[in-house]
Amino acid sequence: MVVDAQTRWSATPLPWQSDEFERLLVMQQQERLPHALMLVGPEGCGKRILAATLAASLLCHKRSGGSCGTCDGCLLAKAGSHGDSRWLEPEEGKRAIGIDPVREAIRFTQQTAGYGQHKVLIVSPAEAMTTSAANAILKTLEEPPGNSFIIFVCHRPGDLPATVRSRCQKVTVPAPDQGQALMWLGEQGLEADLARQAFDVSGGRVMAALAMARTGVLEGRAAIRRTFEQLLEASLAPAGAAADLSKVELETVLETGLSVLQHRLKSHSKSELHKNQAMFLLCDDISQWCAAVRGGLNLTREGLILQLCMRISTVTKLR
Ligand SMILES: [Zn+2]
Question: How far away, in angstroms, is 29 Cα from ligand 1 center?
Fold first, then answer.
């Protein structure tokens, strides 16, 4: 299986998703698979692969559960040209999914299936839908056309209107533990050292780890992490750290800072409660900044990065 973050067809789920996939397959075979599903799990755990695998199973003509990989339905789906399957994602260079593509996707679900079987619409990530786009899809979720299945891939369900969430059956997708992740990265052709480094640098997001290792951005990310770690160890002053980070994309800075803090929190003992609480608060703030940046809000970059570095350095000095 060739896997990358953009994989749109897969005959098998990722190893740590097999229980969830089995449950979905049983439901499909018993014809009680909900027509609106929401796959929820941490970013980078491979939810798209699970969505693609389930879609492949729904589009397979053999109806034997799973994807045979050889029937016309599977061949078309594999080639990305199956007319009954649609991925709805932010357009290139955009973050949001607007109302027009959503309306078009709704029309798609209402048409008769070209190959006489199921239609599958995958929205990824679902929280990228604007409020009006999310509202537009509500009615379809309430009364999905008989043979259509809508699969939402969702990292942050809290960013979606409750009305949308409540109309979907939630499927919690687990993230791999370190052992599973390293073994799987090895199976994708990564050397053990590179796999471990990518896993650490990605903050445990295995799909991001694979993409980073393959696209060579690992060194850049590793350097950003080192800057934050030096801040935490008080071996670098906030102004120096901010200068180091001045050329990096704001979202990358925030995401990496958050990941380093979360990693550090895991290794702290409970006795460091005072410091931990301050770190949790800072993590919350960084998450909010990330959401604001993703939402297109123009934050003052230099000021924000300096503030971030100063707060990390203050947290470290707490006794
Ligand atoms: Zn097939």
Answer: 14
Answer for the pair 40, 172: CB distance below 8 angstroms, yes or no: yes
d(CA 39, CA 172): 6
Q: Which two tokens stand for residue 262?
A: 């979360």
Contact 113, 147 (CB under 8 A): yes
Distance 54 CA to ligand 1 centre (A): 12
**For the sheet containing 148-154, what is the strand order?**
85-88, 119-123, 148-154, 36-40, 169-172
**Rounded distance from Cα 43 to ligand 1 centre (Å):** 29
- Residue 102 CA to ligand 1 center (angstroms) comes to 28
Q: How far apart are CA 61 and CA 74, in angstroms?
A: 8
Determine contact, residues 214/189, Cβ cutoff 8 Å: no
CA–CA distance, 217 with 222 (Å, rounded to integer): 9
Please answer whether residues 270 and 260 qualify as being in contact, where contact means their C-beta atoms are separated by less than 8 angstroms: no
- As given in the structure block, the two tokens for residue 102 are 């959503």
Q: Is the pTM of this model over 0.70?
A: yes
DSSP string over 250-282: HHHHHHHHHHHHHHHHHHS-GGGHHHHHHHHHH
Where exactly are the structural domains of the chain?
Answer: 15-172, 178-216, 224-317
CATH number for region 15-172: 3.40.50.300
pLDDT mean for each 10 residues of the chain (319 residues):
68 96 96 96 94 96 89 92 94 90 95 87 96 95 90 94 96 96 95 91 90 86 91 93 91 91 81 80 93 80 92 82
